[in-house]
Design brief:
By secondary structure, this protein is mainly α. The protein is built from 19 helices and six strands. About 50% of the residues lie in helices and about 5% in strands. The C terminus is likely disordered. The structure holds protoporphyrin IX containing FE (HEM). It comes from Castor canadensis (American beaver).
Length: about 475
């Protein structure tokens, strides 16, 4: 049987050393893997044919760069959702499909699936991992479920209420700074920059109970958080930098590592310092003392958190959650607030209406600080904020990866292993969801959890429109 002999390779049995055999086994394994992958890709492509797709740039690049993270990109999304009102598929290069969902009907099956069926997709979040670790944003499966349950008490009204005073103080510092700058003749301000410092200032107080005074003087920690956010965004724009080993060789990669160390050291030091005060006291005494003296900050809540078996969070878990909240909380709120100001500036008549509403509420009050209960008494302002978040959502999309086939209401099946992008921006600008999506709407659909939301006095915004289908849902 000459075909079965290795002699045609010039390798007699005597030459077939264990190394060569190992090499052959390795090569066969690799070949089998490649063939399996090719088969899976072809099979996936066949199953994905039921999803419409816009024209590709070419077979290799697919739809890469079709939706850049710019204003142009958002215009493209608006066009795409007009053409494909429920969902569409794009190819990131030749072999990675992403199904973009842009309608509540197609988003619902994914968001209502369990975390085991539709976990977050790490392709888009992995850059944050060295910074945020296994905090709520990046953890999956059991760890996520467990921490999510453990952290629920941190969002109890009684914990959140005193934070309003912190927001007032931080905002007053920002306003005082604006007045000073104006009096010095400065008449152009980058609002996002100032508002980011204000949200970071607030978060640092709420999470760590730490006053860095970062709005008035430079703070190394705050500057590092801003650096990290900018580095992550910049990395996302450069495909070559998606490879970890390449990125960490670049100056940006090294800067990122150094910045992570600094941020972790800060968080670690606060945890250590706080741990030293904790063990000597009974938890109830500690809570009482804190409640009397000052606000219970997020680190306190995390240190006191226990599961049913009395197990507490490790220092690493606490650090990951605190760093995650610091990241998630500052950019989103700064972006949301900046767009609210932009939209109010574009519509002075609504700006005036909001101002009147706030003035009326604070008429007999000194100092004129907004309190927790006031938030439900500002229906028109609430409506404007919600509408601004609809038109300019701070997070434009999120992703999930299906670990099993998921069927959509029209019978189309998202195959196991495929990534879905839930387009928040697309859904908010989808004419099949909102009539005239680019116009201002009354975003007054009341949800069960809204207490005295914006529904009360909604007649003033021009379009008395609800999202299509909302009447049945509300
Ligand atoms: C206008 C403000 C905000 C917007 C638009 C926003 C948006 C979002 C979105 C879209 C997600 C889902 C991410 C995903 O599932 O992939 C998310 C998750 C999260 N956000 Fe926010 N966020 C805002 C404010 C905040 C604030 C102030 C904090 C904390 C201080 C925060 C902490 C978190 C955390 C911890 C998660 C992960 C939750 C989990 O997966 O269980 N966010 N946010």
């Amino acid at each position: 049987m000459p075909q079965l002999s290795l002699s045609w390779l010039g390798l007699g049995l005597e030459a077939a050393s264990p190394w060569l055999l190992l090499l052959l086994v390795g090569a066969s394994w690799l070949l089998a893997r490649v063939l399996t992958q090719i088969y899976a890709c072809c099979e996936n492509s066949r199953r994905l044919q039921c999803f419409p797709q816009p024209p590709k740039r070419n077979w290799f690049l697919g739809h890469l760069d079709m939706i850049p993270p710019t204003e142009q990109g958002m215009k493209k999304v608006t066009q795409l959702v007009t053409t494909y009102p429920k969902c569409f598929m794009i190819w990131m290069g030749p072999i990675i499909p992403v199904i973009t969902l842009c309608h509540p009907d197609t988003i619902r099956p994914i968001l209502s699936a369990s975390v085991a069926v539709a976990p977050k997709d790490m392709m888009f979040y992995s850059f944050l991992k060295p910074w945020l670790g296994d905090g709520l944003l990046l953890s999956t499966s059991d760890k996520w479920s467990c921490h999510r349950r453990l952290l629920t008490p941190a969002f109890h009204f009684n914990i959140l209420k005193p934070y309003v005073k912190i927001f007032n103080d931080s905002t007053n510092v920002m306003h005082a700074k604006w007045q000073r700058l104006i009096s010095e003749g400065k008449n152009r301000l980058d609002m996002f920059e100032h508002i980011s410092l204000m949200t970071l200032d607030s978060l640092q107080k709420c999470i760590f109970g730490f006053e860095s005074n970062c709005q008035e003087k430079p703070s190394e920690y705050i500057a590092t958080i801003l650096d990290l956010s900018a580095l992550v965004t910049r990395r996302g724009h450069n495909l070559l930098m998606y490879m970890d080993f390449l990125y960490h060789l670049t100056p940006d990669g090294q800067h990122f590592r150094k910045a992570c160390r600094l941020v972790h050291d800060f968080t670690g030091a606060v945890i250590q310092e706080r741990r030293q005060t904790l063990p000597d006291q009974d938890v109830d005494d500690f809570l009482l003392a804190k409640a009397k003296s000052k606000t219970l900050d997020f680190i306190d809540v995390l240190l006191l958190t226990k599961d049913e078996d009395g197990k507490m969070l490790s220092d690493e878990d606490i650090r990951a959650e605190a760093d995650t909240f610091m990241f998630e909380g500052h950019d989103t709120t700064a972006s949301g607030l900046s767009w609210v100001l932009y939209n109010l500036a574009k519509h002075p008549e609504y700006q005036e209406r909001c101002r009147q509403e706030v003035r009326e509420l604070l008429r007999d009050r000194d100092p004129k600080d907004i309190e927790w209960d006031d938030l439900a008494q500002l229906p028109f302002l609430t409506m404007c904020i919600k509408e601004s978040l609809r038109l300019h959502p701070p997070v434009v999309f999120i992703t999930r990866r299906c670990t099993q086939d998921v069927m959509l209401p029209d019978g189309a099946v998202i195959p196991k292993g495929v990534t879905c992008a839930i387009s928040i921006f697309g859904t908010h600008h989808n004419p099949a969801v909102w009539p005239d999506p680019e116009e201002l709407h009354r975003t007054d659909v009341r949800h069960e959890r809204d207490e005295g939301g914006a529904g009360a006095d909604a007649a003033a915004l021009p379009r008395a429109a609800r999202p299509r289908g909302a009447a049945q849902e509300a």
